[in-house]
Each structure stands twice: as C-alpha cells, then as structure tokens.
Amino acid sequence: MQTNLRSKVTNAKPSIMSDKIDHPQLCQWLNAVATSRDKQAFTHLFQFFGPKIQRIARNRFPNEAQASEVVQETMSNVWRKAHLFNKDKGAATTWVYTVMRNVTFDMLRKIKGNKEDNLSDDIWPVAESMVSENESFDDHLESKQLLHVIEKLPEAQQQVVKGFYFMEMSQEQLAVHLNLPLGTIKSRLRLALAKLKMQLGEGHD
Amino acid sequence: MIKHHPTFELIQSFVNGDLPASLSAGIAIHADMCPKCQKQIAQLTDQVAEASFEEAFLDRFIVDDSEDVNVLAEFDFDVMAEQITASNEVFVANEQLDKTIVFNDKTYKLPRALQSMVMGKTSHIGKLSRARIQLDENEIHTSLLQIEAGGSVPEHTHKGFELTVLLDGSFHDEQGEYVKGDFIMLDGSHQHHPISDNGCLCYTVANDALHFTQGINKLLNPIGSFIY
Known about the structure:
Chain A is mostly helical and about 200 residues long. Chain A is built from eleven helices and no strands. With about 230 residues, chain B is of the alpha+beta class. In chain B, helix 1 (about 10-15) crosses helix 3 and helix 2 (about 20-35) packs across helix 3. Classes of the chains: A mainly alpha (about 200), B alpha+beta (about 230). At the A-B interface, helix 1, helix 3, helix 4, helix 5 and helix 6 of A face helix 1, helix 2, helix 3, helix 4 and helix 5 of B.
C-alpha cells in the first residue's frame, strides 16, 4: 500500500483535481450538514466516504470491527464538526481525510500504547483555518462577549448573523437556505448589526 | 531565519499519520513557525486525500470477495448513518487557554501540539533543566530541555536519532547557529556540542541515550540518559 500511495502522490498535480470526484457536490453536502443539519446530505456523504474509509482502515487495523470503528468515529465527527470545515481553505476530501487520519492516529495509539490521550487534534487541527481567518475573533474574551451579545438578539436575527459571519454564507445563500426574500435577509442583518454596535460600543465596524 | 526543516520523507509520513506522536508533534511545532513547510504539508494533504478517496485507486486493493464486503458494508452503513444523525449534538471547541510551563522562573508558552500532553516534573543538572513528556513510546524519549544562558550539553553522539526543535532562544554547535523554529534531526553519524549563550528552550525527541565522546566528559555518560 505504501509503495502505491507514494507513486500516486508524486504523480498527482496539486492544481488538477481528479474528475472522478465531484468536489463541489461534496462541498455542498458538507455545508448543508453544517448549516442545517441536513440528514439527507449526510447520508450522501456517508455513501461516498463510508465504504472508502472502511477499505483504507482495513489496511491499518487487524480486524473488521476496528475498521468499522474508524468509519463510525470519523463519520460522527463529520456530523458533529462539519461547521469547522472551511471551504475556502481546501476541499471536502482534505477535511474528511484529516478527520479520518486523526481518528486512526488516536485509535492506533490507544491499541498500541493503551493511551487515551487523543493528541491528534492538537497536532493536526481540524478547525485551524477558522481561527486564523477571523482576525476579529482572535481575542477570546472579545469573541465570548460578542457571542453573548448575539445570543440576546431575536431568534430571526440570530440565524442571519450566525449564518453570515460564522458559516460565511452569502446573503443570497441565506435567502435560499432560510426560504426568505433577499430583502428580508438584508434588513434583518442591518437591524442585527445596529443592535450589536450599540451593545459593543462604537469602533467595532 | 529558520534554516533547518524536516525532510520530504518525514513530512510525507507526518501527513499519512505514520509517525509516533513525539515526532508528529515536533513537525507540527516547526510548521506552526514555518510557512514554507506549512504550505508543503497543506499541498501534500490535498494530494493524499484526493488519492485516498478516489474509487479506482482503492479498488486496486480489493482482490477478492469485494461484492460480499460491499453488500455487508452497505447494510451496516445505513444503520450507522441513522445512529449518527439521531444525535443532534454539535461539537463545541473548548475555549483553550494558552498553557505555559515555567523553568527557573522563566515562563514559556507551550506549543499547541503539546497542550494535552502530560509533563513530568522538572529535574536539574547545572544549567540544564529537563521535563520529560509522558508519551509512553517505549525507547523514544520526549522532553522539554532548557539551557540557561552560558550553558551547554557536553560533546556527544547518538546511537539512534535525536530531534531538537528550538522553541525559544538560540544555541550553536560546530555546524552553526540555530534559531527559534529550527528543526534539527541528527543521527549516529553526527557528533556535536551545543552551547547556548543567551539561553534556550528545546523540544527534544531521542530514541536512545546520548553518548558523550570526549575526555573527561566520558565520565558523564550516566547523565546522558538524564538529558534525553
């Protein structure tokens, strides 16, 4: 497996993605899981990744049960952590690979060394991009305060603000996603921002 | 400027998840400070991910009974998918405060890769202080080593490998000067005598005790195992 993987890697060109994998589709499913807990989209992701993860894991673990555990762990992390995926930072395949590699690493450490310290997410962060991208949220205290203020907004405004800023959806995407006219999205966002400004004081725009 | 980087082979094994936690953390620490390696890791991860999830590529490994596996697998997978989506729990990242470690009244911020690791208590010999990191990787020993200003490690060689990632400060040896972020991998063919004029903190991984090579320092061989 190693030899095959190596030669594959050296031959591949980073800029040209294989036409066998429908990257935009995978990306859309992953976003749908992140933003609306879309079970249908998750099932599609499962059908695509599940069997592949199972086969990859069978090369690293001695028995079928452990390989299934890798699938189970990886896919539940995909379900629970989808909001940490940042499409601007890489393909959905790269993100799921990271989740799978981390699960495998922690499991092997557990099997070999009987250690349950789960170090992988510190070594290969699954959400790295989010932190470095959003400079305005760098400050823990400020980000906490901001979240706190956002939670106080009316539900309708919260949805729009969270979708726009935390999930980086466009106003058009939000309109489709929430099934609302674009104008409503725009006015809710405007209202919410005005309230946030008042709460946080000026100088935050 | 960082001049010493992990080899391509090491980075590749790192991306594949094939290295022990000690070396993986060493590369992660270096990459956090080195945009060049960071970029290389990102590109390699894209490629490996692409290759891993490409159906045709994987099918090569299925020699026989592939149909049975698929039938069985699909059945299990549907159940599994249902179970997973039944829970609406969303992962919330812990607000991780930056952890620090203190050596001789100097406080250092711990690299992210080490945040969940268990530190042993610190021991001192002269200007050297060492805290063992408890990773339980058998013959591989991982430590944080502080050299106080003017301190040095006696000339030594290694029976196995010795990795040093410089976390803070600087030191020099016969090969030259090392700065924060440098990733220095040595093996048995290297002999060196690191000196730190202004003090430094290193992350070290070695798979055997040091072996002191010169004159009176040979008497120090019992402390070789102290340092690494």
